[in-house]
Design brief:
By secondary structure, this protein is of the alpha/beta class. It has 15 helices and 10 strands. It has helices spanning 3-13, 28-35, 45-50, 52-61, 73-76, 86-97, 115-122, 128-145, 170-175, 178-190, 207-222, 246-254, 275-293, 313-316, 334-340; strands at residues 38-43, 64-67, 101-108, 152-157, 195-200, 229-232, 235-237, 259-270, 298-303, 320-321. An 8-stranded parallel β-barrel has the order 1-2-3-4-5-6-8-9, surrounded by 6 helices. Helix 13 (275-293) runs parallel beside helix 15 (334-340). The structure holds (3S,4R)-3-hydroxy-2-oxopiperidin-4-yl beta-D-xylopyranoside. (3S,4R)-3-hydroxy-2-oxopiperidin-4-yl beta-D-xylopyranoside is lined by residues 68-69, 157, 233, 264, 312.
């Protein structure tokens, strides 16, 4: 027999190895790929610029990014009419070079507004009619600038209160509830291909907030307003129970035809760090990813920073911290390994 035929005969005679399923992914990018989702992080622009080790991990591990602050109104228009795009541009540019899609965060919010805007409204020099024009121009200018470069926008952020009422912010007070539909319509006009999201915290578990957000979405849809997704921020803490109904809540929004995203996941703890707390944290991260994967419409799983070196938690929650997947030296924590262990859906 010719050597080729012998080789073929040998191959056929050998038993096929048992199918072991996909091997454990080496990193988050590979994990994302295996699950057919995007895994993202918020990006600290100063760290992206100044810290080579931060940049390396960011670009290696993640295939989706959100600007932690660089696209907020006070960052892009600190003085009226004087736009400062350098940071936001840098993020979008870096993402493009590293095959990362981008979430735009955020167009309409009550925080991190420039002083000229809040003070102008407070002293009456900006009338409601003018405020509406200002909002329309802001949305149009920003969405147009990144047209085709931003996969999804957080159009409205945190517009529902804990008790289920609409948040009393400068938009509701001056423009009435119609500002929400207007914001989606203006954003859609500026980039018809971008996915437009409503984003909020505590909708993982807070019933009044969940019900109002669901009705809000249904109402917008009934009026033909372009809304495509809901973002669950997912700011969790291990001193509270894991939101055990989260997957069901995701499903209720998915049933309305919305895309689901986890947009700002972190799991904080009361310091000091202990091995037990890290184990609980790992379990919360694992469950969050498992919940997302259990819902077909959940396509993005984004953490609010990936290293304890750059996390908003210590600055905002007294005595708490260590909320991220990697420690301050960028060493993987149990939570990072727990995510890699989540099996395909
Ligand atoms: C936070 C940033 O992480 C901080 O750096 C900043 O000082 C305040 O805002 N919900 C949101 C995010 O939608 O924009 C917030 O980000 C965290 C809570």
């Amino acid at each position: 027999m010719k050597p080729l035929i012998i080789a073929l005969a040998l191959m056929l005679a050998l038993p096929a190895p048992a199918y072991a399923g996909p091997r454990q992914p080496r990193d988050l990018r590979e994990l994302a790929h295996q699950h057919g989702i995007r895994i993202g992080t918020a990006v600290d622009i100063a760290a992206l610029r100044d810290e080579a080790d931060y940049r390396k991990v960011l670009n290696h591990q993640f295939n989706h990014v959100t600007a932690e602050n660089a696209m907020k109104w006070e960052s892009v228009e600190p003085e009226r009419g004087a736009y400062t795009w350098a940071d936001a541009d840098a993020l979008v540019h870096n993402a493009h070079r590293n095959r990362q899609r981008v979430r735009g965060h955020t167009l309409v919010w009550h925080n991190q507004l420039p002083a000229w805007l809040t003070e102008g409204v407070a002293d009456g020099s900006i009338t409601p009619a003018e405020l509406k024009r200002i909002l329309r121009d802001h949305i149009t200018t920003q969405v147009r600038r990144y047209k085709g470069k931003i996969r999804a926008w957080d159009v409205v952020n945190e517009v529902v209160e804990e008790d289920g009422s609409l948040r009393q912010n400068i938009w509701l007070t001056n423009l009435g509830p119609g500002y929400i539909a207007d914001a989606f319509r203006w954003a859609h006009r500026a980039d018809p291909h971008a996915k437009l999201f409503i984003n909020d915290y505590n909708i993982e578990w807070n019933t009044p907030k969940i019900e109002t957000t669901l009705s809000l979405v249904k109402d917008l849809q009934a009026r033909g307003v372009p809304i495509h997704g809901v973002g669950f921020q997912g700011h969790l803490g291990i001193q509270y129970d894991y939101p055990g109904d989260w997957a069901n809540v995701m499903r209720r929004f998915a049933d309305l035809g919305l895309e689901i995203a986890v947009t700002e996941l972190d799991v904080r703890m009361v310091l000091p760090v202990t091995p037990e707390k890290l184990a609980t944290q790992a379990d919360y991260y694992r469950r969050a990813l498992t919940d997302c994967l259990s819902v077909e419409a959940c396509k993005e799983f984004t953490v609010w920073g990936f290293t304890d070196r750059h996390s908003w938690v210590p600055g905002w929650f007294d005595g708490e911290g260590a909320a991220c997947l990697l420690d301050e030296n960028l060493a993987p924590k149990p939570a990072y390994r727990a995510l890699l262990g989540v099996r395909a859906r």
